[in-house]
Amino acid sequence: MNLLIAPDSYKDALSAGQAAQAIADGLRRALPQADLVICPMGDGGEGSLDALLEATGAERRRHEVQDALGRPTLANWGWNTADRTAYVELAEASGLQALAPQERTALHTSTHGVGELIRAALDVGAQRLLLLLGGSATNDAGTGMLVALGAQLLDEEGIPLPPGGGELERLHTLDLSGLDPRLLELRVQVAVDVDNPLTGSRGASAVFGPQKGASDSDVARLDAALATFADHVNQALGQDYRRTPGTGAAGGMGFTALALLQAELRPGIQLIMEHVGFEKLLKTSDLVITGEGRLDAQSLAGKTPVGIARAAKCFGTPVVVLAGSLDQGWQAVYPEGVTAAFALADRLMKLEQALPRCAELLADRAESIGRLVQVKLPK
């Protein structure tokens, strides 16, 4: 029997690789003779870089960049020499988890560090870039990245704007003439796990700004500021992308990648499956076990377990989801190709009790799945 183990990370508990190993440990208790294939996955959010590196064997590199508040930090990125592809995860440079709660300020955080990582990739000859969005602390529409790559954002007096999305309300001149010319030859794909537009009631500021420290008044200011930036981009290009699904990803980074890097926006799970050769693995698998921290109706928007289930459905391969919790509307995943779904908890427990036990609970549930697989029901 061939079992494919392909979980996402379990936030604040296990990386995708650690989760996969825990599932494998449990399966081996019940099915010691089974062939286990481990393929950690992600949907473009935090931890997707680690999953890609483990699955593809790409080289992990580190580069000193600015974090979301302009402080020096070491950020990881991936380099696949064989096809000259760089993997850049926004959260490595500009991630929310790197900031203490009191440091989170959506008005002032910047994606400058992401641009520094892209420049490092260009310096080694990158021809393709997979930009992984998710887990951002920023709401600057990727303008910090643009500045790091050579653009200038100037106020009415010709003075460069300070970092942060809130400053875009004072944008008077968008000067793209200094953008790194190597970007013209770079094929950019962007992994997004949301379909929100840049602005409006479902835009980056309104939906994601509060979790990044934005008050109600900050949200209104940021939404107007991003609209001002979009106006300037529209004037420069003659095309308005602000309503395109996915442009609100990572505080509007999706917008700038699409409009100014000529990027292709794709659901993250689809892109990552392509890069790791997931379809080939599915063809030889009898069962797929996946999972992540929570399964609910929102998982249908492009989260890892549902993306995997949709792909597996094409091959008639059953999929079992092991989730930290099953929340409202989780049953909607069944028509998407999920065969069965299970929560990890073995008794009533609080989140702070469950997190340290995540590996243990995953292994136990996986063992139960393995034992069930062995059962031969009477005809």
From TrEMBL:
UniProt GO MF annotations: glycerate kinase activity
InterPro entries found in the cross-reference section: Glyc_kinase_flavodox-like_fold (IPR018193), Glycerate_kinase (IPR004381), Glycerate_kinase_RE-like (IPR018197), Glycerate_kinase_sf (IPR036129)
Protein name, per record: Glycerate kinase
Cited Pfam families: Gly_kinase
Keywords: Kinase, Transferase
Keyword Transcription: no
GO annotation terms (biological process): organic acid phosphorylation
Keyword Lyase: no
Matching NCBIfam families: glycerate kinase (TIGR00045)
Family membership noted in the UniProt record: Belongs to the glycerate kinase type-1 family.
